[in-house]
Design goal:
Layout: H1 2-26, E1 31-39, E2 42-46, E3 49-53, E4 57-66, E5 69-79, H2 82-86, E6 92-100, E7 105-109, E8 122-125, E9 128-129, E10 134-142, E11 145-154
Antiparallel strand pairs: 1-4, 2-3, 4-5, 5-8, 5-9, 6-7, 6-10, 10-11
Length: about 160
């Protein structure tokens, strides 16, 4: 019985993959990208208390769409090792910025500053159509200071 189920799943998976490749070839080109950058160790004051963020945290930025149309975009912070246990981010925000091919920023979607402390900040941005090719960036701020930037190029 187990072999029969595995065989059926293999056949269904192969058929689904063939259909996806065939249908995908005829449809519009889609693009997506995910990138990660490290957030270095830093310290900051919160109401007189010193907070230290150790090495081991990363800003990850994902963008999906086609051409200048962004269908989904989000950015968040993840930590591993000791940083996962001890890191909290207070007074944080994530901004999304858009620049043209000459690196001139023409739009900023400023995030809300979150006064509560969180271990895993995350922000989603609304779908949109950009007026220009260039790049889209996620910028992570803690306590008013830029701590990390991660960008994706948007080209034809």
């Amino acid at each position: 019985m187990r072999n029969l189920v595995r065989g059926a799943l293999t056949a269904v998976s192969a058929a689904a993959l063939t259909a996806a490749v065939t249908l995908g070839a005829a449809g519009a080109a889609r693009a997506s990208a995910t990138g990660t950058t490290t957030i270095g160790s830093f310290s900051y004051d919160l109401r007189g208390a010193g907070i230290k963020v150790p090495v081991g945290c990363f800003l990850t930025h994902t963008i999906k769409g086609s051409g200048k149309r962004i269908t989904s975009q989000f950015a968040g912070v993840d930590c591993v090792g000791v940083a996962a246990t001890f890191s909290q981010f207070c007074n944080w925000r994530i901004d999304f910025t858009y620049a043209d091919t000459n690196n001139r920023t023409y739009r900023t979607s400023r995030g809300v500053t979150h006064t509560e402390c969180e271990r895993d900040p995350l922000r989603h941005n609304a779908p949109q159509k950009l007026p220009k090719y260039g790049k889209a960036c996620a910028r992570f701020h803690v306590n008013g200071k830029l701590r990390a930037t991660q960008c994706h190029f948007i080209t034809k």
